[in-house]
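=== RUN LOG ===
request id: a7f3
mode: sequence -> structure
chains: 1
length: 197
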Amino acid sequence: MYPLLFFQRGYSYLEVTLVIMLLSLPIAVGYSAYQKILMRSERTVTLHQLERALEAARSIAIKESTLVTVCPYFITYNNTIMCGANWQEGIMIFLNPEQQDRPLSRNIIQVLKPPRYGQLIGVFGGKKFSFSPQGITAAKGRFIYCPTATKYGASEIDALIIKDGRMRRPQLRDAQGIFLSKEHQNSTETLSCTLQT
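=== RESULT ===
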């Protein structure tokens, strides 16, 4: 037998464990940062798509001189498409001259899918709202994007506010959430991811 030289030995268990530990730390930090980037990106894209879809709905209502309805998307057990009650399952926009909850398939303008990493909560007086032929809506409310993971705080919450047929994004933020408007700057009203009934 030949004697083993110093450089021919393998790695010890301690050395391998130490290298794995040192490599796992940056991977864990990087994965957390990646998740946060994904959530912020989806929040931005979701609210941007919603804003563009609502602006298009308003424009179509004016151009076609008809009622355009926005409501939660719902498919019944027999595949009938109609307005639902849960905004988190998707949003449907359709021409609605007959003012019904069940649109004809040819009248559907757009269906927005629910976000993957968060939820979109609609807070309105009813389960739907419509743009009149003048582009105005009687509904005052907001869509709130809430992240799924609870470890991301109120800074990840965002909203799209609808008033008189116009959409806007709130700009004033604090540690608790987002103020609805400049008038609410001194009030305690903030956006929340819990629905109040």
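=== NOTES ===
The CA atoms of residues 92 and 111 lie 4 Å apart.
The radius of gyration is 25 Å.
=== END ===
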